[in-house]
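re: ur msg from earlier - yeah i can do the acetamide complex, just paste it... oh wait u already did. ok heres what im feeding in:
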Amino acid sequence: MKKLLSLLFTGLLLFAANAQTNPAYNIVPKPVSITEKKGAENFQIDNQSIIYADATLSAQAAYLQEQIAVQTGLQLTTKKGQRIFTKAITPAIVLRLVDSLPHAEMYKLYTYLNGVYIDAKDVAGLVHGIQSLLQILPTEKTEKAFIKGVNITDYPRFAYRGMHLDVSRHMFPVAYIKKYIDYLTFHKFNTFHWHLTDDQGWRIEIKSYPKLTSVGAWRKATVIGHFFDTPIRYDSTRYGGFYTQEEVKEVIRYAAVRGINIIPEIDIPGHCRAVIASYPELSTTPDTTRDVAITWGMFNRQNNVLAPNDKTFTFLKTVFDEVADLFPSKYIHLGGDECSKMWWKADPKTQAFIKQKNLKDEVELQTYFINQVTGYLTAKGKSVIGWDEILEGKLDSSAIIMSWRGEKGGIKAAKQKHYVVMTPDNVCYFNKYQTKDKNVDKLKIPGYIPLDMVYNYNPVPKETADAGLSNYILGAQANLWTEYIPDVQQLEYMLFPRMTALSETLWSGENGKDFTDFKRRLKANIIPRYNLWNSNYCKVWEEWTVKNDEQGAKNAKH
Ligand code: ACM
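and the outut:
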């Protein structure tokens, strides 16, 4: 027993020593396994170092070269092909694809004879390995960067690790979308969900329907304060913009180099106010001209739904055709959320359509829209994702369900053998408050999601696991709805450090989850990166936890 304790103690000491001296122990998200290599395996890179990579990986080699230059000032060269061992071995970084690795997105990073090797299953895995290497390297300018001998084996727990961004309520320029993608890359996410259309602005060029952007991308004003304040107030500034198809292609290329898939969302048949402002004939009130929405929270308050008629279905087919041709993603998101039924109930033509198609009611009409678009997309070899409302009718497709109204939609979907992405609004809505200090966290969507709540989230509900359906939970995603996020400063404040916590939840999984150790690594290794990137973050994150609040509430009672 004594021996065992002593061994344990030595182990702890060793671990503590490693944690201090080998930066590999500070990596976030935490790798599956790290062991230290001693002595000769210590290695340094300098301006003489070479990045070797197969020809198919030249874009990733250039990416690594650039990141190292930005981070350390070192100017490495890149070379195609593999390293040839000579007597005087030049320090090198070697990037390779190794198909025999057993997991998707897996990589191994190890030092060996004056070199650091990243062997990866695929491009995404290679980019993850590059992130771990960058996290081991210093964040200040240097002539020689030391790498302690190390052996890392790593792969993700979940196949889907996503971040969403709403660019309708507030728009962010292409350069910033790229920076956002860099955040995903750094944190080993693999999916960017780009919410491109909504009531307050249509943000993607569609060549067949130019008014979507000449009219639908612009609103006359924006609500000030909460949309439910009385009296409601507006500014008088025209607001808008859109991404051209060329810009979209540029973003897709940028993401592809970084192993990130982009899922575009065209939200139908609700959230379509910008569409019907552009083309009133697609609404239940074709003779009424309506503006692009200038306030938030349109559900049941103002008409924003598409009418089921020939013009609308031609519109949907054409738009989704263009979108499917543009984005290489297998999955296209068609929204489907918060579709108010009252406008369909009030419209005789819609009622006649429901009768003619033998639909039971407006809920089945909503599903009819979803199934029509699913049909168009399936014919183009794509699959659909939608918010959990699309489960409400008879969904006869292989759609992936994004569970946002808590987890119940996801649990139900998994029972019906639909694949699920969890994004419950009580944990994954990063547009909600992360502190209870109204001086720090001003105007937000109500709800409180501090850092430990995100870190401790498990995307597989117990009920789903108990039913043996865990494999239907593909992963999770955090959403950034931008009603109250008008600029980059605010966006980053909402994002960090919660996104960093989610990355570990999704990558490292339940085994060895340790919030205290996570906080240590966050401080040692990640906050310096936020600073390196000139990115804002919530500075008081440590003061706000679910646990502290429970304690606070208890103390208050006594
Ligand atoms: C949503 O938050 N309406 C998906």
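cool cool. Residues 13-19, 551-558 have pLDDT under 50 and may be disordered. ping me if u need the other ligands too
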